[in-house]
Amino acid sequence: MPKAILLDISGVLYEDARPLPGAVEAVRQLRDKGYPLRLVTNTSRLTAAEIHRQLSGMGFGLSPGQIFSAPQAARRYLAAHGLRPYCLIHPNLEEEFADLLDLPQPNAVLVGDAESRFDYAHLERAFHLLIEGAPLIAMGDNRYFHSRGALRLDAGPFVRALEYAADTQALVLGKPSADFFNGALHTLGVAPQDALMIGDDVEGDVLGAQKAGLQACLVRTGKYREGDEARAPGAGLAADLADAVRRYC
Amino acid sequence: MPKAILLDISGVLYEDARPLPGAVEAVRQLRDKGYPLRLVTNTSRLTAAEIHRQLSGMGFGLSPGQIFSAPQAARRYLAAHGLRPYCLIHPNLEEEFADLLDLPQPNAVLVGDAESRFDYAHLERAFHLLIEGAPLIAMGDNRYFHSRGALRLDAGPFVRALEYAADTQALVLGKPSADFFNGALHTLGVAPQDALMIGDDVEGDVLGAQKAGLQACLVRTGKYREGDEARAPGAGLAADLADAVRRYC
């Protein structure tokens, strides 16, 4: 049995702004069982404060401090290394990154899920900084996410585009980076082998967690696609979060 | 000595709409020496007819049939395989591809250097077709090209983005594909080892040609960047086309 639980958010707790069946009750059970809990997310279309507000509105009883997001990890990294990023990020994130926008002489490129800002002009601006030697910092490199019945492009494809264009490699400050999982566990004081990661993304959540030494469980909700479990034979498999909590917690 | 010559165009013959010094005379020398010649280009911002018109305007004495372009190779491939492409291509190419635009129920994705059409909406449309099983056909996968003193993003980064998003691999109908070099040589009736490829792109031109069995020469014009030659130790190196013709033809 794990001593702490990490949960992905979108596609595990909710989908299209509605909690998934049994998810609110499953989170309550985890709390009642006394599990230390972190919600780990690469979402860079929303601030952590907004994520917490939405989860609260859906009935999830969680505190803001239980959210561990890639944008927060990126902010910490940029500050620790004195970097002035060119921010290719979503308009929703501008409030959280207000002090880092439009800095003179940027010396890093920060990429989140910028959605429609991923256009030729913005990508070319980032490319020019990269070939001058700026490091590429990515808030996740997920391929896609699931929303309103469709798969939407996430930041990952554009991170790969910039890596290829400038012949460089991104530092990914989000899942599946082991640093990111370890960062979340550090706030809980729990060792990787004592933690269980539950997610719908076989790469970012499950394989990433396993590589960092955590136990992992794939749920068949959100972006799960038939057959994904074959790629992570050592992981648990559950119909949804409620089923995962029943089986593994 | 080679029996036939393949030349890249942009960055070898001309730059920013002006012939490079000595290039017109070098092409005339190749013709006078009787070399069979093909201009091989991944350019997908211009039709072959427009490329020929521009080269003629600069004083290059070449016939339209001497141009072997990735868009032409793509058209042949699509026709041979009965494919109806979704075309993510440059507006300049729409005339050449008029019969292939806006086809119902596309079953392939064709990507050229679409410049500002590389935006989130167009890429997501391509992504959705790819995950339904449509093949990804790329007119080259160059990282960038050189224009008006700046490096501009080429099709390659966006090909990589789509490959990663949909977990697929593009068929590249342009340099550095061996099929493309062989296609050009086939029109000349010359074996790879008897042909010399002269280009400014160490990957697309030089390494691609070498992999296809051709001799190759890197010129230090166009997109050449200091140190590129270290990546292709078996290739010739010349200051420009005139120097390459002097040394190797």
UniProtKB/TrEMBL annotation, chains A, B:
GO terms for cellular component: cytoplasm. The keyword Magnesium applies. It comes from Pseudomonas indica. GO terms for molecular function: metal ion binding; phosphatase activity. Residues 1-78 form the STAS domain. Belongs to the HAD-like hydrolase superfamily. Its cofactor is Mg(2+). Pfam families: Hydrolase_6, Hydrolase_like. Signal peptide: none annotated. This is Haloacid dehalogenase-like hydrolase domain-containing protein 2. InterPro entries: HAD-like_sf, HAD-SF_hydro_IIA, HAD_sf, LHPP/HDHD2, STAS_dom. The keyword Nucleus does not apply. Keywords: Hydrolase, Magnesium, Metal-binding. NCBIfam families: HAD-SF-IIA, HAD-SF-IIA-hyp3. It comes from the Bacteria.
